[in-house]
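=== RUN LOG ===
request id: a7f3
mode: sequence -> structure
chains: 1
length: 573
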Amino acid sequence: MLSCLAHCIDNRQRGVWLDQANTIPTEEYNALLRARFKRPSAWPNYTLSKWQAAQRQQEELNMAIREALINGKEGCCNSGGDRQTTQERRERISAAAKYAWEAYRRDALGYDEFRPLSHSGTNMTRQGIGYFVADVLDTLWLAGLQKEYAEARRFLVDHVTYNQTGSVSLFETTIRVLGGLLSAFHLSGESDTQLLHLADELGTRLAYSFETDSGIPPETASLQHQKHVYAYQSSTAEISTLQLEFRYLARLTGKRRYRKYVDKIMDVVLKAPKWDGLVPIYFNAVTRRFTGDTIRLGSRGDSYYEYLLKQWLQTSQTEPRFREEYDTAMEGVKKYLAAVSPNQNLTFVGELLSPNNANPEFSPKMDHLVCFLSGNLALGATQGRSLAEMSPLELSASNREDLVLARELAETCVRMYFDTASGLAPEIAYFRWTNPATGVEKPFDVNTQLVKPGGDILVHTSDRHNLLRPETVESLFILWRITGEAKWREYGWRIFEAFEQWARLPDGHGYSNLLDVTVVPPQHTNKMETFFVSETLKYLYLLFSDSSTVPLSRYVFNTEAHPLPHFTWNKKN
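=== RESULT ===
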């Protein structure tokens, strides 16, 4: 053990860092809290949740920092047996990706979506746009499935064209298809010009949607040019989750218009009034203001917040306006949306209903989608660096608070899996919650909604399905890379085994979404989402991979898990 420690802690500085890891910046944190709650509330009649990092949680974070410093990056003191187990698990996940791909290739190659029970597929347009294939392409590469990658790539370059009629989702096509093509091009060493040509062709056609009076695009994009494009109301997340892809496309092609289009969207969005950085889930392109009756970090809201941070990281932290807006929004999350359940002490991020009223209603509802936030908070706290590689004093009180919230939220997200009968999470969960203004617990139906006796997670009948989503394992991957805590890997492995047990179809037919995770066996629903391979299996594979594989300090993952490199603008862009 001593020789191992000598290898991991190879200089006196590391010993100094270990001493620093005993410190909690109490005065700095108290000053942060005073400033937060001294600022006038966006809603004068609303009772604040007043979430804050408890002393116990601060101490647990210090223990995690010390463990990272002692073990070194990714635990250099791991035994050979641990390394063997990690390799075996990585190979199992690679085999799952191969199993999913082979089912699709045999039964639906070329179709945009896959129906595994009926052995068929469906298209977004008459000809299809390579939706499934482009989305999974970089997973095949990263998982070492070179034969399968070659098959997928060959299909795209030989059979897919975007010179066709039809309309597609601007958001989904950008994050899945354009993002997938750009990521695969980069992984090729930026040498596969046929993939870049496809990306450029698609980008040109999707960009027709940006030619509105306000610059805010509609949610649907025509692949053929129209004389006039009109947008009225668009999803907040959808208009603000195009930037990583089009900015990188501008960097690669030298075509400034791509960057100009998506930067104009952010110019308009960032100028619009907000509530302490929080925004409703729709944006009115005519009034250039946010609209809608819900503020949430789930559907239609989530990736707005995600891309604020990631735009700052993508261009090597050279555009501070994105980071400033992100930090303001996270302050709003902690002030109004973060809460803790009464029995299991689960930290969750709820929703605000009717934000235009003086006293909006808090809802203890959290989409599984919100579980991305755990990883995003950790990423923002260290900019992707491992705790083993930095002085604890480099973490401000705010950074530490973000890491505490990230760890607590991740624990809640895994409980959404482990507390159900199947070990898989529902699409949406509610939590038992006591109103801080009245001291009264919000009513619920103990017979139909409570997942676990004595627990705090509630699931409505209509929310019990599972789409094999990635957000929890995404955060587990990021937390593992940053903290090196073994538990994040163990949680991820339990989730993978539950997918294998319940979502995997026999006889080589791939995987399927599930109807109800609260019963076993859960019923299959005849769809395998592209993001199961593109995101869920990719993040699981990377969870058990070395940190030199797509290092977080050099890459951002778009919201569909396509890794794109950091860069800086040059005169051409």
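=== NOTES ===
The two ends are 52 Å apart (CA to CA).
The mean pLDDT is 95.
=== END ===
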